Amino acid sequence: MKLFPRTPASSDAPAGLDEPAQHEITRLCAHTAVLLMQHGAESALVEGMARRLGPRLGVASVDVAPMSSAVIVTTVVGGRGVTVAQRCEDRGINMHLVIEVQRAVLEFEAGRIDLATYRERVHGVQPLRYPAWVVAAAVGLACAAFARLAGADAVSCGVALAASGAAMFVRLRLARLHFNPLLNFFVTAFVATSVAALGLRLGIGAQPRTAMAASVLMLVPGFPLINAVSDMVKGYATTGITRWTVATMLSAATCGGILLATSVWNVWGWR
Predict the structure, then answer these.
(1) Cα–Cα distance list, 22 to 58, 76, 160, 265 (Å)
(2) CA–CA distances in Å: residue 161 to residues 80, 132, 147, 183, 210
(3) pLDDT digit string (tens) for 199-220?
(4) What angle do helix axes 181-201 and 154-176 make, rounded to 10 degrees?
(5) Which label site among 39, 114, 253, 267 has the fewest CB atoms less than 10 Å from its CB?
(6) 18: nearest Cα among 86, 71, 70, 82
(7) Closest by Cα among 245, 259, 131, 267 to 181
(8) What is the tally of structural domains in the chain?
């Protein structure tokens, strides 16, 4: 059973591709796969999108090997294979970019756009990023809502909002400065716990310890863990294990930041 049915070759791709043209097509497929991989797409989606480009580009087959740090793409035309390995750097999760690349691939496959338009779109797509204060406010409200679900009063929810909002602003700032993600999570957890601990020491709110617990929930690496399980279930064990390991290390860095803050402020326990 074919997971990705082939369509007739596109008129954009010349018949009997020469080697330079095949190299260009392979690089385009690799660039598409790398864009998806480095912005949080699961491995099955990365491989599927790259393979669907092949028939429209006039190649016999496209083989993709997605990995955590690189993507390897091989195209075959008339028995001649060309392989391109392109490094994949983590750019953070951004579903806007993933969806835009998917739309471009599907529109090109359906013949609604030509090769030049497709190349322009995938090379020009930029991830949508909200202002830092908007993200910090939204995350603060989400953590405050978690505190409320855990039974915190309104004042304690306000402490959770302030702690998580300030920590998220710090996290975005460190990410903009290209700090290591492990250090980023460590510092962010320390800031969130410290602000919430200050509320505990000053006696702000009836459930300040609940606010402390809720303020660090934004650091749970849910998306990487989901992708890790999905990759392992769908047969991409190496990539899945790597993503699981990274998520575990991020969780460990978060725990380290929390422990340091509770030691500095001498506020042990969340209950």
Answers:
(1) 9, 8, 55, 62
(2) 59, 15, 9, 23, 12
(3) 888 888 888 889 999 999 999 9
(4) 150
(5) 114
(6) 82
(7) 245
(8) 2
Final residue of a structural domain among 107, 124, 141? 124
Same-domain check for residues 141 and 236: yes
Tokens 């606010």 — which residue? 211
Instruction: Give the bridge partners for 80, in sequence order.
Output: 77
Kindly state whether residue 78 falls inside one of the protein's structural domains.
yes
Q: pLDDT tens for residues 15-71?
A: 457 888 999 999 999 999 999 999 989 999 999 999 999 888 889 889 999 988 899
Give the global pTM. 0.84
Q: Which residues pair with 84 in a beta bridge?
A: 73
In angstroms, what is the C-alpha Rg of the chain?
23
